[in-house]
């Protein structure tokens, strides 16, 4: 699959790159994608919600009324969940929602996501670029050139670039990552995936194993 290489003004450079069919042209595995996205979202959960149960409530432990003869139900403690101010029954406790996935499955999920985006013509290859200073205006001009200023976009760079990252940080619909930091969720969440020319080799070598 051949794709034209554009510059940051959105113009064709006259060069084309070959996207590997082993990464960008496979039959997507929906279940692998589902599991990888599920893990990504689960790992983001804090799991810090907590409610006090009857053993953790501060209060007297005396028996609040006699066992028999009151005509009402037995009651042994003011901390009982049936009373106002008592402990909660089976309340939430801090927990870790994360789970592990096989590396090969995660690799398959990312290849599936890239293949889905490639099939829908949502992948743009741009020549490597840099900014002299970090300015949001510089990055906005790049988005305007590609016509994606109002769309969610994922920029994939060959290596960490502080000026490019800081220029894009204030833009709500833009995410900038390096080729080793790709995630299935972010790939599918973007309307357009912009790959720098230098990132292709790293992506294909990482996912072709």
TrEMBL record:
Pfam families: Ribosomal_L4 (PF00573). Forms part of the polypeptide exit tunnel. GO terms for biological process: translation. It comes from Lutibacter oceani. Residues 48-77 are annotated as: Disordered. This is Large ribosomal subunit protein uL4. The keyword NAD does not apply. Part of the 50S ribosomal subunit. NCBIfam families: rplD_bact (TIGR03953). PANTHER family: 50S RIBOSOMAL PROTEIN L4, LARGE RIBOSOMAL SUBUNIT PROTEIN UL4M. The gene is rplD.
């Amino acid at each position: 699959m051949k794709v034209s290489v554009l510059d940051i003004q959105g113009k064709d450079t006259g060069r084309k790159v070959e996207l590997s069919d082993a990464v960008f042209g496979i039959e997507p595995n929906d279940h692998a994608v589902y599991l990888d996205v599920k893990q990504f979202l689960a790992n983001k959960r804090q799991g810090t919600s907590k409610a006090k149960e009857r053993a953790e409530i501060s209060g007297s432990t005396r028996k609040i009324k006699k066992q028999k003869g009151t005509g009402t139900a037995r009651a042994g403690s003011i901390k009982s969940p049936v009373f106002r101010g008592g402990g909660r029954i089976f309340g939430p406790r801090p927990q870790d929602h994360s789970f592990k996935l096989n590396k090969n499955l995660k690799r398959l999920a990312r290849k599936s996501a890239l293949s889905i985006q490639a099939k829908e013509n949502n992948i743009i290859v741009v020549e490597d670029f840099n900014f002299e200073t970090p300015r949001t205006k510089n990055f906005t001009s790049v988005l305007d050139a590609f016509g994606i200023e109002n769309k969610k976009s994922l920029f994939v760079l060959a290596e960490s670039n502080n000026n490019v990252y800081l220029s894009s940080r204030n833009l709500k619909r833009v995410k900038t990552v390096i080729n080793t930091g790709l995630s299935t969720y972010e790939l599918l969440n973007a309307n357009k995936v912009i790959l720098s020319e230098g990132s292709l080799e790293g992506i294909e070598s990482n996912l072709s194993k």
